[in-house]
Amino acid sequence: MHEIGHIEMSRPNLRRCEDEYLATQWALDHLADYGLDDNGYIVTVMMDYQDYIDREYDRGIRRHCKTLPPKDSLQLKHKGFENYFLKS
Ligand SMILES: [Zn+2]
Fold first, then answer.
1. Cα 17 to middle of ligand 1, angstroms
2. Measured in angstroms, how far is the CA atom of residue 3 from the centroid of ligand 1?
3. 41, 44, 83, 84: most buried by Cβ count inside 10 Å?
4. How confident is the model at residue 37 (pLDDT cuts 50, 70, 90)?
5. Averaged over 7-36, what is the pLDDT?
6. Cα(64) to centroid of ligand 1, in Å?
7. Domains of the chain: which residue ranges?
8. Ligand 1 centroid, distance to 35 Cα (angstroms)
């Protein structure tokens, strides 16, 4: 689903962290279309992808990228877990 999200959401000039966020959020938003949204494993996978997105974001910071969006705009959301990944 994530890889299909890359195809669906790909745009020019995205930072890596944005690209990964958009692909993953697309996948989360379309799980129900395939009856996959009730799987308890989703939270584990979401956490792994959020860590991945955060690592790519931090790498962008280290590389002095000037076009990074606010980090909290790259927080994955899924029904029932709206605030699950918001870190203080
Ligand atoms: Zn990806």
1. 9
2. 6
3. 84
4. confident
5. 95
6. 22
7. 2-74
8. 22
Contact by Cβ (8 Å): 84, 46? yes
- The CA-based diameter of the chain, rounded to the nearest angstrom, is 41
Residue 33 sits at the vertex; the CA angle it makes with 31 and 34, to the nearest 5 degrees, is: 70
State the average pLDDT for the chain.
Answer: 89
Distance CA 43, CA 46 (A): 5
Give the confidence band of 87 by pLDDT, cuts at 50, 70, 90: low
Rounded distance from Cα 34 to ligand 1 centre (Å):
20
**What is the Å distance from ligand 1's center to 38 Cα?**
22
pLDDT digits (tens, 9 = 90+) for 46-68: 999 999 999 999 999 999 988 89
- How far does Cα 71 stand from its chain's mean position? 11
CA of 83 to the centre of ligand 1 (A): 22
